[in-house]
Amino acid sequence: MSTTMRSEGYSLWLVPSFSSALYTTIQSLINTIPSTYPDTNTPTFNPHITLTAGTIHLDHDQDPAEWLAHTTFSAAQQNLKVTINELHVGEIFFQKLIMLCEKTDELLGLAKECRKLATGEGEEDVESSDLPQSDVQAVLGQVKADIWEARRPNPDSTTAKGAEIWLVPTFTTIEDWTPVATKELPDVEWTWATWGRIDH
């Protein structure tokens, strides 16, 4: 019987290239949009797609960077195209206000590959937010206006090239959700779809 101790579950995130205008523009929105909803305690996240949540359990003597470095993904998933679409208002805490991505075969395939790496059960986020959906919907127009204002001076933010997969210790407090290991996927292409029309 093995007595090797394992860590609590890590998550795998797909993150746009840091150097892209798309990343910096979305990050600025993540930092500022919560002020639209006063009297809420909203954590700050990096822009990301969650590929698997809390399912990666490593041995305590295992190096996370080495584990991720030796993890391979199929060529189709390495060359995937990600399209960011409309805003979505959800019920649970981590989906209260998000931007949906098109569920292409390539993106779903990458998520499936990541879930096959699972070495334990993940925990679904079932925590309810103290911010009612109706309150989010009430100022959705203002949020969309904020998005347009952020994108106007950054026309290059509509597309980006490159991504990283992050191994994130999501069993810790949210403030500590920073990657313990990263893996580059330089050929991933991002498109931030346009909502409506901007008058110049």
SSE pattern: EHEHHEEHHHEE
Low-confidence stretches: 1-7, 122-129, 196-200
Shape designation: globular
By CATH, the topology is: Cyclic Phosphodiesterase, Chain: A
Largest sheet: 6 strands, mixed
The CATH superfamily is identified as Cyclic phosphodiesterase
The total tally of domains equals 1
Radius of gyration from the CA trace?
18 Å
How would you write the strand order of the largest sheet? Answer: 2-1-5-6-3-4
CATH architectural group:
Alpha-Beta Complex
> So what's the CATH class?
Alpha Beta
Span from first to last CA? 68 Å
Helix residue percentage: 25-40%
Given the helix and strand composition, which structural class is it? Answer: alpha+beta
Binned strand content: 15-25%
Query: Mean of the pLDDT scores?
Result: 81
Helix tally? 6
Number of strand segments = 6
Molecular structure report:
Helix content is 26%, strand content 24%. The chain has 6 helices and 6 strands. The chain has helices at 21-32, 64-69, 75-78, 105-116, 133-138, 140-151, and strands at 10-16, 49-56, 81-88, 98-101, 159-168, 181-192. It has a 6-stranded mixed sheet with strand order 2-1-5-6-3-4, with helices on both faces. The longest helix has 12 residues, at 21-32.
